[in-house]
Amino acid sequence: MKKSMAALMLAVSVLFTGCSAAGNGSKGVEDIQKIKDRGVLKVGVKVDIPKYGYKDPKTGKIEGLEIDIAKQIAKKILGDENKIEMQAVTSKTRGPLLDSGEADLIAATFTITEERKKSYNFSEPYIKDGVGLLVKKSAGFKSYKDLDGKKIGVAQSATSKKALQEEANKLGIKVQFLEFGSFPEIKAALDSGRVDCFSVDTSILSGYLDDNTEILPDRFSLQEYGIASKKTNTELAKVVNETIADMKKSGELDKLIKKWGIN
């Protein structure tokens, strides 16, 4: 009798475990279906980064590499690249928008880190870059070491601050960080002299170059960008990865990177 009861309990346990696994598996499918039922893919994008996600003040259109990638994902899910709803995000707001469900995906120069992977799904990287330094030509800086005692403008919640501090420690120099909500604010601070340097990934800095500024040769901490989704949206993450893999295989991703002049 005891053996029969034990066998019954084991069978019930297996049944409920199976149901639970099936429920978790179907959750991701349901999230894809919600997007299809809604008829639009909601994506958080940058609107202040030339080449990646930038809102042209003349046309009002948001364009860039990440916009093109997001459109391909929308096409894969909904059959139409124009069925996409874009929302402007900053380095500080992109995570919370995923958490709240206001955005299905974030395609906004989101650097992949082990810490962030604990909270979100990240696609395979579509760009690899290093942290760089944009300075005024008139300042005469030749390398990071010349910024000893100077002020560096960085974005809130960006990974560049950590990379720069680690390098400063190695070089034995001291730098002060000022955090800003957007990249145009940092560029304005550099132009006005509030900061001595604007630092973020080099390909982003290239969009802010002008006749009065230059990018120093120093490069720190390889950065990899990925498309982020909510941790529970496993099927959506799978579709994103498939899309990027297809774009890499077909050469479409390389074409887009060349199109936007990203080095």
Automatic annotation (TrEMBL):
Residues 40-263 form the Solute-binding protein family 3/N-terminal domain. Keywords: Signal, Transport. It holds the Pfam family SBP_bac_3. InterPro entries: Bact_solute-bind_prot3, SBP_3_CS, Solute-binding_3/MltF_N. Residues 1-21 form the signal peptide. SMART domains: PBPb. PROSITE patterns: PROKAR_LIPOPROTEIN (PS51257), SBP_BACTERIAL_3 (PS01039). GO terms for cellular component: extracellular region; outer membrane-bounded periplasmic space. GO terms for biological process: amino acid transport. The keyword Signal applies. PANTHER family: ABC TRANSPORTER GLUTAMINE-BINDING PROTEIN GLNH (PTHR30085:SF6), AMINO ACID ABC TRANSPORTER PERMEASE (PTHR30085). Belongs to the bacterial solute-binding protein 3 family. This is Amino acid ABC transporter substrate-binding protein.
